[in-house]
């Protein structure tokens, strides 16, 4: 784990032991046993769960890969996801159970994601009409990306359905082509599925998100929040870099200054990012894409305004860059997203 006397930005890597052994990995171990599956990392997971020691994200991901390879049925990720939340994390889980509504539950998950959703970080955008929960990769594992997205979406849907005692009218967006069959997505998530999107996201109307849940207790919610531990302050390298770049997009961040602020040499930062299956330009383009999406749709800016906000002095240059990031022009991107959001019968 990286530390430095000059107090650079803190982060951990995929090979650092930071995940509680009695957490999600223990749930995976239990599910594997019921399915009579022997995981590649079974001994390490069993030992960590018994001794309540930490495991590395790499170990957990290897165990997931082993599970999915031995149970190739398309419902595997959804079944596992249904068990993830609220989890068994003391006051953190109790606070989630006593959340007044979906909006507060999502906010709680986003604040404490390092415990509740360590592999994919949920990020919440709130507008006047809707809430968007989108998922960012914490450790760079593209081979498992689809299963991880299905796991985490299933976790949120199952939690909300349990606490609200009703089904929500979600819209699901997937940054992937349509699968051969969406039967499992429809069974575990719902029928409002959008594929070939720019984000892996869940969208819901603000009215539904703020609707009071029947079992809520304001006193229990506040008490559990007060007793919950503070959010972890050493995010993964990819999450810390995302936050860093998002806060500096208007300053045109570069590799050299970024490495310095992380207390690293440019070569070391490159090596660390490669270890996580990425590189600096890819992460910068991802942040720019997400910000452009937000400005074009939620903020309602036009192409020239977004170009100026992102530091492009030439709108045509921004159009070319946007097409490189997303495959389409800013105007086409905005039209596509607004069409998806405003389809009849939803968010009305």
Automatic annotation (TrEMBL):
Residues 239-336 form the HTH araC/xylS-type domain. Keywords: DNA-binding, Transcription, Transcription regulation. Gene3D superfamilies: Homeodomain-like. It holds the Pfam family Arabinose_bd. PROSITE patterns: HTH_ARAC_FAMILY_2 (PS01124). PANTHER family: HTH-TYPE TRANSCRIPTIONAL REGULATOR GADX, HTH-TYPE TRANSCRIPTIONAL REGULATOR VQSM. One of its GO terms (molecular function) is transcription cis-regulatory region binding. GO terms for cellular component: cytosol. This is AraC family transcriptional regulator ligand-binding domain-containing protein. The lineage of its organism: Bacteria, Pseudomonadati, Pseudomonadota, Betaproteobacteria, Burkholderiales. It comes from the Bacteria. The keyword Magnesium does not apply. InterPro entries: AraC-type_N, Homeodomain-like_sf, HTH_AraC.
């Amino acid at each position: 784990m990286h530390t430095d006397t000059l107090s650079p930005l803190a982060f951990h890597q995929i090979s650092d032991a930071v995940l509680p052994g009695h957490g999600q990995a223990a749930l995976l171990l239990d599910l594997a046993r019921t399915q009579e599956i022997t995981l590649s990392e079974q001994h390490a997971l069993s030992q960590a769960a018994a001794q309540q020691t930490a495991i590395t994200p790499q170990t957990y991901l290897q165990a997931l890969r082993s599970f999915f390879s031995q149970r190739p049925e398309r419902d595997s990720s959804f079944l596992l996801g249904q068990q993830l939340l609220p989890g068994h994390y003391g006051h953190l889980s109790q606070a989630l159970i006593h959340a007044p509504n979906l909006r507060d539950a999502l906010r709680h998950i986003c604040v404490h994601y390092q415990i509740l959703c360590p592999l994919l970080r949920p990020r919440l955008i709130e507008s006047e009409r809707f809430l968007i929960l989108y998922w960012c990769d914490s450790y760079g594992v593209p081979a498992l990306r689809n299963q991880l997205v299905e796991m985490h979406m299933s976790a949120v849907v199952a939690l909300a359905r349990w606490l609200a005692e009703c089904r929500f009218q979600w819209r699901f967006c997937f940054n992937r082509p349509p699968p051969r069959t969406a039967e499992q997505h429809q069974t575990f998530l719902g029928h409002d599925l959008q594929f070939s999107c720019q984000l892996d996201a869940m969208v819901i109307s603000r009215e539904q998100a703020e609707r009071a849940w029947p079992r809520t207790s304001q006193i229990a919610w506040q008490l559990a929040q007060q007793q919950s531990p503070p959010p972890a302050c050493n995010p993964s390298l990819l999450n810390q870099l995302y936050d860093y770049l998002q806060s500096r997009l208007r300053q045109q961040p570069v590799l050299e200054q970024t490495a310095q602020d992380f207390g690293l040499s440019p070569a070391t930062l490159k090596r660390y990012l490669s270890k996580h299956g990425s590189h600096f330009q890819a992460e910068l383009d991802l942040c720019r894409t997400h910000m452009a999406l937000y400005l074009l749709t939620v903020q309602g800016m036009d192409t020239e305004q977004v170009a100026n906000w992102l530091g492009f002095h030439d709108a045509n240059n921004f159009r070319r860059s946007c097409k490189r990031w997303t495959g389409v022009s800013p105007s086409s991107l905005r039209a596509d997203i607004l069409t998806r959001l405003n389809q009849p019968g939803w968010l009305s």
